Amino acid sequence: MTAAHYTVLAGGTGAAKFLRGLVRVVPEEDIHVIVNVGDDTNVWGLHVSPDIDSIMYGLAGRLETQRGWGLRDETFRCLEEMGRYGMPDWFRLGDRDLATHIARTELLRSGNTLSEVTARLAKSMGIEAAILPATDDAVRTKIETIQGTLDFQEFFVREHWQPEVRSVTYAGAEEARARATVLSSIRESRLVIIAPSNPITSIGPILAIHDIRDALRCTRAEVVAISPLIGHAAFSGPAAKLMEACGYEVSPSGVARCYHDFLDNIVIDVQDAALAASIRYETIGVQITDILMSDDAAATRLAEFVVQLEQL
Ligand code: FO1
Prior knowledge:
The chain contains 13 helices and 14 strands. It is an alpha/beta fold. The protein folds into two domains: about 270 residues, CofD-like domains (Rossmann fold), CATH 3.40.50.10680; about 30 residues, no CATH class. The strands form four sheets. The protein has a seven-stranded parallel sheet, with helices on both faces. Ligand FO1 binds next to helix 2 and helix 6.
């Protein structure tokens, strides 16, 4: 029996863009998305899961694509009022988005796991893909900077990723366990795709869960990563800065190195074609195409290209 589904390891914005293409190429119900929870945070007592929400809103066609996070047609009146009360307002929760965080927090409080809550919210949004948090345990990305240790959102949003970074750690990852559905999704997939997300803070926390990294090493499926970099620059965000801080070369070769122990192929941009020989030398196959997802049509072309790699 051949496996029926495609598994995507995902962070937020870049992954959400890619999935908009993938749903146009394969049936949505055949897509399993394993999502980073290292960016999760607590705001005003609410459990916020930014990457899960970006994927959910993206698949529901409701993501604010200019910003890359939150819902379309959003207002921020509650945020304004909270600011008036002197509550922290640097993390901008929109009025509609708040409903997601309130519902998630309440469902978690009444004893559901993050996986159960996510499945329920996604179903209510009419999403047919399976959105699987990498773990139900608390794994949190910590950024060690010269100003001290910051939570990911403090570094990324409050400090605009300016502080000098010494290292990145994933608190709780050692003890965290992946759910059986996450592991079987990887093991029984027809193709595993690492989305063009930040290798350190989006994919890194997923891979820091030992069961998941082991499943990737053991799966018979092809494992294909899409580079989140063209040349030495990230599409968006601090990927380049964080890769450098963690000792990786800032290039698609450095991305391949992050995944060296399980990766079969990396998809890089035509502009980086000259790098192919050096990456292939490391026994990882290199596939070259236009990886910039400037619109849905470009994301669809990229998804078509990646899906045909299953045949390799
Ligand atoms: N990103 C920002 O740059 N500024 C914000 O105020 C902000 C608020 C926010 C609220 C909900 C949510 O789900 C995401 C939000 N993000 C915001 C995005 C988020 O910080 C990052 O894009 C991801 O964690 C990185 O993948």
